[in-house]
Design goal:
Elements: E1 2-9, E2 12-13, E3 16-17, E4 22-29, E5 34-38, H1 45-53, E6 60-65, E7 69-72, H2 85-95, H3 102-113, H4 128-140, E8 146-150, H5 158-172, E9 176-180, H6 184-190, E10 193-198, E11 201-205, H7 208-220
Parallel strand pairs: 5-9, 5-10, 7-8, 8-9
Antiparallel strand pairs: 1-4, 1-6, 2-3, 10-11
Length: 221
Amino acid sequence: MIVLEDVHKRYRTDRGLGKWVLQGITLHIPRTCNVGLIGRNGAGKSTLLRLIGGMDAPSRGSIVHRCRVSWPLGFGGGLQGSLTGRQNAKFVCRLHGFNGEIPEKLAFIQDFTELGNAFDDPIKSYSTGMSARLKFALSLIFNFDVYLVDELTSVGDALFKRKCKQAFEQLTGQAGLIMVSHTEATLREYCQAGIWLHQGQALWFDDINEAIASYRESIAL
């Protein structure tokens, strides 16, 4: 379970502290539930996902993980441009305590990304697509209880996009999911429950269709 208690978030701007993006959010998200985050642009969906994943910290309140939670799928924070793809992958493996499985993990990453010899080139020499492939593969090599997704990550040509989608579907069959997507069909395909973010608040719905209906009603006003 992921427990959020009285979570507030706002950012500092050039003119001082900005408005509250999230205000007093309290949620208990089950580990085995696939949940879609729904709301207008700027409602705080990506912010909430980063907070849950530990990429950002709340201004007030607390977030407690009672299970293994991934970073947002495809997130590349912490990669060093002067290091090679292989060196970055080794660092991430060691950081997460997989010292004994490094050769196996590296072999998977190199094969999945189709980077070839470029796996041993510095990250700063990568194209945007090559970098995104590496970030996506790094997100796949660990067995988390809950995966976080900010839009369905897929890069490259049609064949590689299909490979990404298949890998993602395997993940959702064995773990929980918290997803941000602007496509209702994607949310209905992968999620059972929904969290509607509106005016800094978060409302939980056991049925994703009810969450989508509430969101639609709000934008029709």
